[in-house]
Every structure is written in C-alpha cells, then in structure tokens.
C-alpha cells in the first residue's frame, strides 16, 4: 500500500511540474472565388495571349490569409525564461497541396528562448524584421496578398521567409521594439555568400505608430528567392520566368534581375488612429544591385542596378464593430536599366470584411492596376497584380469574394 501511495504522489508531482508547459494547435482556412479580366496563357513571338479567368482559389494566391495549420509551444523554465517553438504549415484548401513551394513547414519553423525582460531569440525559418516593422502599415495587412506592391517587390506581403536564421526581438519599452536577424549562407570558404541580415524598429503609441526596416541579401536569387523545395540553384531564375507559348510569364516586373549580387529593401511607415479610422502610409525602396554577377542567369545582359520606389497611402474604418472597409493607393516606379526608360505601376486597393463571429468572416476585395514603360523582360510593361498571372496588357482588374475561418 505504501508503494502505491508513493507512486501516486510522484505521478501527481510530475503532472504539476509540467503544468506550465503548453502546446496549442491553431490555423486558418481561407478560400474564395476570384476573377481577373486578363491573365496570360502564353505568347507567340512577342505577342502575349490572355483572357479573363474565374477560379476557386486558396488565399495564398489572392485572399486575406493563406490557409495554414500550426503548433505553438511554450515551456516555463523558471526565472522569467521560457522555451518556445512554432511549426506552421501552409496549404491550398482548394486542392490540398502544400504551399510555400512544397515545404512541409514553409510558413514558419523555429525554436528559441523568450524572456519578458530580456527579449526573444529564435532560430530556424522565420519572418524578417522588415515584415515585423512595416507590414502593419501596408494594404496586405487588411486587404490580403493581391493588394501587395507589384509582385510583392518589397516583401510586405511576406512572400519570402528567411531560412537558416537567428533572430532577436527586444521586449517592448514604452511602445518601442527592435529586431535583428542574421541568416548563415553556409558556403565553405565564403562566409558572405548567400547571407542575409535585417533590422527593424517599431513604435506603438495610443494614436501614432511608426516603423522602419532594412534587409540585405547576398546572392538573392538563391538565398532569398530560391529557398523553397520547388526552386533551383543559381542556374535557374528563381525570381520569375519569361514564359513560353503555353506558359504565362511570372513576376515580369523584376524577373530579369536574377543576376543581382545583392538585394536591399529599405522602408519606413506610419499610422494614425482617429476614433474608428486608421490612416496609414508606407514608402519602400527595393534595389537589385550588381546586375551581371554569377548569382543567377542574365539573358538580357543587364549591368548596374535596378531600384523600385513604392509609396502607398491607405485608410481603413470600422463602420461597425463587425464591418471593416478600406481603400489604398500605391505607386511604384523603377529607374532606367540599360536605357529602357524604366517602368511605373499605379494600383488601387479596396476591401470590405464582415465578421459573422469571432472566428468566421466573409469579405470582398478589388484591385486595379495599370503599368507603363518597359519591364525587366524587355517588353512593354504589363500589369501584374500579386497572386494572379500577369496581364496580357498594361491593365488588370482582380476581384475576390471569400470566407475565412480561424481555429
């Protein structure tokens, strides 16, 4: 009897010792019907073919929140220190396929230590500090991926995560937080090849919020754009493609710059809350430097630098506690590369989101874009709303109605 009692006490003690550990299953399912007035189907010579399209798609393409499921865990280690981890899988709810290029945990996969007084250190596949510091000021924060600046040129819609990285985020001090990330290139004999580093800063006040971020990626065709299972090495163009007679182009705004030795993204943003209305502004500069290096193919013989400046002004309002509406205008301009005169992209974003409950909402999105000039593929610039196949012309309209459920 003494042995039974002793064993029972030890079992209760073990349960109590682990009572401060937790693992949570969470996720989002977001699916909708999308329409685009012009989507490429291929090209014959220099002529682009295309037509309108209606499709049932996951939000990874054009919606509010890409479908996902994840595990988030925390263990109290005592003394204001906790061990944490996140494993987050992205998938296409309309087909069941893996998102993020076929990566099992392509959205996030990291483990680390967290302290309320000292900050958080994590290692793995993670969001970079530019996303952490600027996404909240851009349209993708409330209008989804299709509202990203042309082709998500500045990654504010979080198209690309960072592999092999260590990140540190400070605790909040009077509304101020900062973060830093370093990704190891892992190349023997060359410590800077394929490396990525990034910094971010945010301030959150009662009405005014500010943010700034910077990212520097060496050999971005491999390190930044080529870090998922469906991507290739330096011999492939991981930024996009020139298309074919039966395959549409991909990311024509910047696909021609795969040979850049360095990618730099710098941005600042701000928001101001007026009762139920929030006004936002964000400006970014994305630079593909050292064109003509061995980082990727260079079929158009580019040299020098290509840089995109994007500016966005937005406003969103909670008309009722359950109904949000928002409008944004963004303008992106690229410099002249190899005497092509550059390119310009103007875009209007609109969203309406209605909450049926705390977990379920329905929404409608609309994006209109117009392109002028010459794009990176040496052709008259075509409109290219993020998530859709590029237009066969200089104009494109994307519409979506969808439903999102969080669990």
Key features of this structure:
407 residues; Porin; 16-stranded antiparallel β-barrel; globular; disordered N terminus
Number of domains: 1
Strand order of the largest sheet: 1-3-4-5-6-7-8-9-10-11-12-13-14-15-16-17
The ordered string of helix (H) and strand (E) elements is HEEHEEEEHHEEEEHEEEEEEE
Mean pLDDT: 94
Strand count, sense and barrel status of the largest sheet are: 16 strands, antiparallel, barrel
Model description:
- With 407 residues, this protein is mainly beta.
- It has one domain: Porin.
- It is 8% helix and 50% strand.
- The chain has five helices and 17 strands.
- The chain has helices at residues 2-17, 59-62, 129-134, 140-143, 220-223, and strands at 21-44, 47-58, 68-78, 81-90, 108-115, 119-126, 162-169, 176-183, 196-204, 208-218, 262-274, 277-291, 304-320, 323-334, 343-355, 360-373, 395-406.
- Strands 1-3-4-5-6-7-8-9-10-11-12-13-14-15-16-17 form a 16-stranded antiparallel β-barrel.
- Strand 3 and strand 4 (81-90) form a beta hairpin.
- The longest helix is centred in the first third of the chain and has 16 residues, at 2-17.
- The relative contact order is 0.16.
List the helices and strands and how they pair.
Blueprint: H1 2-17, E1 21-44, E2 47-58, H2 59-62, E3 68-78, E4 81-90, E5 108-115, E6 119-126, H3 129-134, H4 140-143, E7 162-169, E8 176-183, E9 196-204, E10 208-218, H5 220-223, E11 262-274, E12 277-291, E13 304-320, E14 323-334, E15 343-355, E16 360-373, E17 395-406
Antiparallel strand pairs: 1-2, 1-3, 1-17, 3-4, 4-5, 5-6, 6-7, 7-8, 8-9, 9-10, 10-11, 11-12, 12-13, 13-14, 14-15, 15-16, 16-17
């Amino acid at each position: 009897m003494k042995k039974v009692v002793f064993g029972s006490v030890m079992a209760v003690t073990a349960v109590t010792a682990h009572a401060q550990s937790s693992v949570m299953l969470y996720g989002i399912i977001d699916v909708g019907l999308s329409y685009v007035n012009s989507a490429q189907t291929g090209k014959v010579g220099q002529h682009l073919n295309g037509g309108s399209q209606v499709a049932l798609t996951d939000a990874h393409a054009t919606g509010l929140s890409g479908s996902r499921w994840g595990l988030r865990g925390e263990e109290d280690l005592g003394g204001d220190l906790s061990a944490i981890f996140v494993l987050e899988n992205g998938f296409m709810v309309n087909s069941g396929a893996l998102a993020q290029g076929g990566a099992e945990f392509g959205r996030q996969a990291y483990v680390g230590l967290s302290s309320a007084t000292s900050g958080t250190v994590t290692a793995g596949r993670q969001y970079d500090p530019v996303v952490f510091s600027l996404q909240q000021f851009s349209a993708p924060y409330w209008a989804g991926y299709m509202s990203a600046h042309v082709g998500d040129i500045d990654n504010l819609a979080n198209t690309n995560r960072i592999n092999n990285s260590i990140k540190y985020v400070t605790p909040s001090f009077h509304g101020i937080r900062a973060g830093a990330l370093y990704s190891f290139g892992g190349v023997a004999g060359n410590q800077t090849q394929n490396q990525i580093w990034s910094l971010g800063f945010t301030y959150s006040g009662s009405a005014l919020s500010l943010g700034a971020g910077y990212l520097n990626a060496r050999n971005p065709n491999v390190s930044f754009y080529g870090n998922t299972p469906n991507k290739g090495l330096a011999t492939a163009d991981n930024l996009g493609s020139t298309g074919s007679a039966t395959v549409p182009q991909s990311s024509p705004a910047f696909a021609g710059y795969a040979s850049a030795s360095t990618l730099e993204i710098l941005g600042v943003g701000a928001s101001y809350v007026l009762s139920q209305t929030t006004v936002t502004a964000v400006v970014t500069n994305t630079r593909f430097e050292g064109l003509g290096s061995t980082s990727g193919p260079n079929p158009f013989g580019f040299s020098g630098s290509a840089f995109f400046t994007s500016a966005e002004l937005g406003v969103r309002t909670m008309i009722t506690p359950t109904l949000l509406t928002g409008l944004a205008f963004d303008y992106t301009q690229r410099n002249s590369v190899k005497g092509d005169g550059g390119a310009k992209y103007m875009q209007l974003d609109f969203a309406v989101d209605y909450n049926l409950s705390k977990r379920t909402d329905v929404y409608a999105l609309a994006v209109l874009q117009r392109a002028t000039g010459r794009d990176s593929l040496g052709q008259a610039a075509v409109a290219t709303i993020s998530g859709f196949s590029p237009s066969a012309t200089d104009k494109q309209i994307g519409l979506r109605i969808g439903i999102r459920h969080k669990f």
